[in-house]
Write a structure and sequence with these properties.
Layout (H helix, E strand, L loop, with lengths): L3 E5 L4 H12 L3 E10 L15 H8 L2 E7 L6 H9 L6 E3 L6 H14 L2 E3 L7 H10 L3 E7 L15 H14 L10 E7 L5 E11 L4 E12 L1
Parallel strand pairs: 1-2, 1-4, 2-3, 4-5
Antiparallel strand pairs: 6-7, 6-9, 8-9
Amino acid sequence: MVMRVAVLSSGGKDSSAAYWWALCKGWDIAYLVTVTITGGDSHMFQIPGVAAVQYQAQLSGITWINVESEGIQEVEIDDLQSALEKLDIDGIVSGALRSDYQKSRLERMCQKLDIISWTPLWHQSPLSHIRGLVDNGFGIMITGVSSEGLGQEWLGTTLSKESLTTLEKLSQEYRFNVDGEGGEYETLVLFGPHMDGKLVVDYQSHWDGVRGHLDLTQIDAVKN
């Protein structure tokens, strides 16, 4: 049976990996769904860089659905539910890795909607997960850093086998998650096997001496 699904996407490496997983299964990926936080914080969803998902959707030929939420705890999941209940889908696919908070809320929401929640990355080995993405041609750009050991020079870096080796060594030295699951860094996928083309971005870099992020000033979708 071919499943018809929506992929929850922030534009980063984990949701892109989940999208690719569903694509490899031959499923009908009907929508990319992004929760855009209009408030200051979120317990559930990534905030920086999510506007790029609409351009990723263009390169994938998929409808993009933007769900705005203030990011209020226990309300943001209701905002997502209200959007999903209008869609004709069998379930959702997300890039949840190790957050029980995120996974359990998505599963409870899907129970209410009578659909399935798939989390294909759940408890994958951190290093094998990110190494597999780089090896399979995902262009993972670092858009934010907030961990000791990760300086300003990482902002705007697109991971390669060489830079990933450096990242691995730093994660061991400074004891952070090499896959960024603890919020040590944020990512945006510029290209990959799930996209027919690549994103070309301009940005401004912000660094306060401890942490930093990129503000994307222009995003273009360039098809192959």
